[in-house]
Amino acid sequence: MLDRKIIHVDMDAFFASVEIRDNPALKGQPLIIGALPHERGVVATCSYEARKFGVHSAMNIKEAYRRCPQGIFMHPNIDKYKAVSQQLNGIWDTYATMSQRISLDEAYLDVTEQAIDWEGARRIAHLIKQRTLNEVGLTCSVGVAYCKTAAKIASEEKKPDGYFEIPTAEDFVNLILDRDVGVLYTVGAQTAKKLHDIGIQTVRDLRQRPDEVIVMLGKHGRWLVQVANGEDDRPVKPYRPEEAKSIGREVTFQENVYNYLLLKDVLLLLALCVEHRAGRYNLRGKGVTLKLTYTNMQSISRSRTLTFATSSAVTIYREASSLLDGVRWDPARLIGVSIYNLSDHDEGQTIMHELLEDQPQQQTERQRLLDALQQRYGLDFAGHLQQIFHTDTLHKTIEYMRRHFRP
What we know:
- The protein starts with 5 loop residues before the first strand and ends with a helix.
- The protein folds into three domains: about 15-80, MutS, DNA mismatch repair protein, domain I (3-Layer(aba) Sandwich), CATH 3.40.1170; about 175-230, DNA polymerase, domain 1, CATH 1.10.150.20; about 240-405, DNA polymerase, Y-family, little finger domain (Dna Ligase, domain 1), CATH 3.30.1490.
- About 45% of the residues lie in helices and about 20% in strands.
- α11 (about 210-215) runs antiparallel to α12 (about 220-230).
- By secondary structure, it is of the alpha+beta class.
- The model has no long low-confidence stretch (mean pLDDT about 90).
């Protein structure tokens, strides 16, 4: 095992904490960020006061309201949270040779070189906590350990505003030995159930029956046996957008959508969002995927591989619309589109792209599609397109379209 010193930083109830910071009247209240009680959706995060009622992230918003009807429900302000996240990363990156962002509010930091020894790592961790509080006005929980898995668990030990360290593999094993196997990295609900079904409840059970785990879960099982023994040599690896499997956007409707012309109108806005995000990272995709969820919660996806890589909203929309034409026409509650098989732009690809996608024709078709939307809904899509890329504006626009749609 390499002698690394890894820090895992995790903000405390991030979205809720930002809102409380900006509106002190919310302090001490059961604040729930996500959908509103009368809407479809889930809890994005909630304050610790709301968690006392059993509310948690990813919970259906109706269930959250049933458990905590006195809660204060708010839509998330993603753009604000992204700005705060950039500020946080500016602080955290100061101390790391490598940093790996996991989400807006969470990151791994390799501080091996800066820390030199364990005392140095401890000092850096406390500096991160102090600067995060002083400069951003928010608390975070920090774990320091010899590997990523241990650092993640360490950051969760003393939440909120916590600090915990796990210096060695022996310390890690002793900490988790009698905990449920769900504590291990990559053990989700389904894997935990499989293990529970054969009598493996705890990490101790898993360590005592490694061969059975490997036979049942294969490569994943071998990984779990390693982690249960405190072995994790994964490096802190900076996120590279081109390594993502796909770039996509989806939306859940507040009421069922019965007309596929409206779905196609929504697909156009989603395709424009995908184009925008792909352009930020200079990426193209060689395939398009359509996702659809019906009112009975059945989800389907249809994909099509292209002969060339694209990030064009017109091409994405055209392919997704064609895929939509081929699926069952039932009321829908969610629709999404994505591109996959991603690659960077380079000069050769750009030339090929321009040969295969007639650019003037693309611009003409783009304008025609936007003009049709404007005529149908009375909204200036072309003049205010940048605003559509903001999550809240996109959702509000789509809901306006749903309410005012006329076949």
